[in-house]
Amino acid sequence: MKQQRMVRNLISARLVGRLAYVMMGLLAVMSLSARGKPDTASAQNTSVAEQGRAKYVFLFIGDGMAMSQISSTEVYATARSSKDINITRLGFTKFPISGLTTTYDAGTFITDSASAVTAIATGNKTLSGVINMDPAKTVSYKTIAEYAHEAGMKVGIVSSVTLDHATPAGFFAKVPSRSNYYDIEVQMVESGFEYFAGGGLLQPTGKNQDQRDVLQLAQEHGYTYVNTKDAFNALRPGAGKVIAINALLQDSGSMPYELDRSANDLSLADYTRKGIDLLQDNPQGFFMTVEGGKIDWACHANDAGAAIHDVLAFDNAIKVAVEFAQAHPQDTLIVVTGDHETGGMTIGFAGTQYNTFFDRVALQTRSFIAFNAEILTPYKQNTPRTLAKLADLLPAIKDSFGLDYGSLSKFQQEQLEFAFQRSMGDEIERAVAEDQFLLYGGYEPLTVKITQIMNQTAGIGWTSYAHTGVPVSTFALGVHQELFSGYYDNTDIFKKMVSAMNLSL
User: Fold this and answer.
1) Are 151 and 504 contacting, i.e. CB atoms less than 8 angstroms apart?
2) Which among 403, 436, 412, 401 has a CA at the least distance from the CA of 422?
3) Quick check: is 371 in a domain?
4) pLDDT tens digits for range 256-306
5) Segment among 19-33, 128-142, 398-412, 466-480 with least mean pLDDT
6) Cα gap 161→180, rounded to integer Å
7) Does 61 share its domain with 73?
8) Which of 42, 153, 212, 481, CA to CA, is 20 to 30 A from 71?
């Protein structure tokens, strides 16, 4: 009986202690609720009132960039300099705030760039292919850039792909289809934004080349148009509104892949730096968005080398903004995110098991598109199919990708031979057969097979030639950086920027 009473007393004491502990926790939660959670609208507004609004705002979007692309680049940077198992961090992954962002749109868990940028730029979900309109394509949405412009801020739009592509267009255009390039270009000119720079325009005289030249229209709207390095470098503050298109354009009017860029060509960092020079002389500040668009294009083609180098170029552009922020720490906000992941890229391949050999990526000297343009296409044009031999291209393959045919397995050699025959027969259309699309994704069979084998030997895998539905990472540095911590939807990026900039909707 005595032991039973002792047990009952011990249980009672523990229950009382636990009850007291729970009550203390409840009081703490009630106290926090009374003060307001850090990510509530009231707390955000209080934060803006206390710290002041973000006067200079950079939004960097790595198109197709999720943690796989970021981590692969960091592993590559490590492998270039050391045999140690370590991570050489990119500049933006050192930002004090990071978050995780969902990317689904109104119709699918796997978004495209048009619906993704609509979410980021306006805070609204829509269907893939639609830019800044509702799913019914009847209601238009105003963008963060337009709100900023109305508030007196200057606006800059920079992209390594064409300026009428989905992501840059998402800050000034409203179209039911992202393919309405001429309409997008006209809206670009009519936006009045002060700075457009990077890639070219796909349809400056319309789809059928029967429309008024957009560049002429731009000049009538007060824009200075430059497309040479000398003219670009000569731009000075006070130049007015500017459209600066890169002198050398690669596939579909874009800037060259960083892997293919010569020392004399302008970089994404150059365009970012010039944008700061031209926009900062404004009492209300500026909003600038910079897209690393060719990260996505490289991942569509499963070209890890090209993707990694473009992530590095993207990071270099961000470093330019960080330098500016260091001079204006109380006024600057930098946000870095991706719109979606592309390719299903991963660190790890069945053939290498637990090992990686990322130093092999450094052997690549050309992107897939440069190899096509400079090597494969001329060979196809000048060599009858009956006389064509894979052996003719082996020296160029080794020079471009570091692949030594003799060191490949018999299976890999057979894969290359099969892909070579497909390329020589121009059998690259996705409609030919479903299995051919699964093998090559609509790209040149030989080239994509080269990049696949090279990636696999490095320990890099792919699951798709399209986008995937995984979340992306978001990083923030500067005034009101704390708003971007946590796990949230891509539509919340718009809301957080609105709060940080203290914009009136």
Assistant:
1) yes
2) 436
3) yes
4) 999 999 988 999 999 999 999 999 999 999 999 999 999 999 999 999 999
5) 19-33
6) 16
7) yes
8) 481
Residue type, 294: K
Query: What are the φ and ψ backbone dihedral angles of 262, each rounded to 5 degrees?
Result: -85, 165
DSSP H or E segment with residue 410: helix 410-424
With CA atoms as reference, report the closest residue to 442 among 426, 425, 453, 429: 429
**8 and 87 belong to one structural domain:** no
Strand, coil or helix: what is 217? helix
Q: Give the other-Cβ count within 10 Å of 238's Cβ.
A: 7
Type of residue numbered 329 = P
Length of the chain: 505
Looking at residue 266, its amino acid is L
Cβ atoms of residues 344 and 464 within 8 Å: yes
Tell me whether residue 260 is exposed, middle or buried, using C-beta atoms within 10 angstroms of its C-beta: 0 to 12, 13 to 18, 19 or more. Answer: buried
Q: Record the tokens describing residue 328, joined without a space.
A: 């204006």
Same domain, 189 and 270: yes
Q: Give the pairing type, strands 97-102 and 486-489.
A: parallel
Q: What separation in angstroms does the CA of 221 have from each of 140, 304, 409?
A: 23, 41, 60
- Residues 61 and 74: their CA atoms lie apart, in Å, by 18
Number of domains observed in the structure of the chain: 3
φ, ψ for residue 346, nearest 5 deg: -150, 155
Single-letter residue type at 186:
V
Q: Please write the tens of the pLDDT for every residue from 246-267.
A: 999 999 999 999 999 998 899 9
